[in-house]
Amino acid sequence: MMTMPLQRYDRPASPPPAAALGAAPAGAVIAAGCQGCSMHKLCLPMGLDAGAMGQLDQIIGRRRRLARDERLYKRDERFTNLYAIRFGHFKTFQLQPGGEQQITGFQMAGELLGMDAISTDRHACDAVALEDSEVCEIPFTLLESLFGEMPTLLRHFHRLMSGEIMREQNVMLLLGNMRAEQRFAVFLANLSSRYTARGYSATSFQLRMSREEIGNYLGLTIESISRLLSRFRKQGWVAVDKREVTLLDLPMIRALAAGTAASRPM
């Protein structure tokens, strides 16, 4: 009999919806500020002292709230701002010649949107909210002016850009060389580590994206995603209740993602 690892319940399972945070209506403009934000340890201000945080606060234009399915920016739109996600989830995608979406990533609180446009001054993809969300707008020309005065901020920004490059490379590897089971395990392990970094449970979270969107991102059909969920559930690795996922055997999920384990025959 397989022994399941004990789950920890000292952390919330997943971020609460916008309504639970007392969110204002979508489209509302709110005064921004980094020092009181719960995401400041993950976002651009990481490592800055109070004085530097105050300088950064002065250049952030506003907080912007978006409703589910609302577009933050679209492909070929002129680049003016970076967007730090304060709460909520987004997807980025490109439209194929036939009009189909190809999802390029899922983003959550503490992450930056818009870095794809820095080199060309035009966005290379669309960004759409997966749920009611809020972003802080950071005018990039003003941010650049701070880089010379704040080397810590510049170094952190370089780390963020490096992370984006690594994520793109990992997606290429995901779609090119990994079998379906490994792709799905990588997806779950990645969500687990990102939620952990934000103070949430590593083993219990809600999928903000649909199975169809997950399949699109992983290069799999929605039927394949359903079969993989069923297989992982029967193996005793996950429990699924609608969009709520519990990783019952996180070490196994990580081993599958790393390619050091494979599922047992059913």
Characterise the protein shown here.
The chain folds into two domains: 149 residues, Jelly Rolls, CATH 2.60.120; 79 residues, Arc Repressor Mutant, subunit A (Orthogonal Bundle). The longest helix has 27 residues. Helix 4 crosses helix 7 and helix 5 crosses helix 6. The N terminus is likely disordered. It has a five-stranded antiparallel sheet with strand order 1-2-9-4-7. A four-stranded antiparallel sheet has the order 3-8-5-6. It has a three-stranded antiparallel sheet with strand order 10-12-11. It has 266 residues and is α+β, with helices and mostly antiparallel strands. 35% of the residues lie in helices and 21% in strands. It is built from seven helices and twelve strands. Strand 11 and strand 12 form a beta hairpin.
Please tag this protein with its features.
Arc Repressor Mutant, subunit A, Jelly Rolls, 4-stranded antiparallel sheet, 2 domains, disordered N terminus, 21% strand
What's the quick description here?
It contains seven helices and twelve strands. It is an alpha+beta fold.
Tell how many strands the DSSP assignment holds.
12
- What is the helical fraction, as a range of percent? 25-40%
What structural class is derived from the secondary structure elements?
alpha+beta
pLDDT average, as an integer? 84
Strand order of the largest sheet: 1-2-9-4-7
- Rg over CA atoms: 19 Å
The N- to C-terminal Cα distance equals 15 Å
Shape: globular
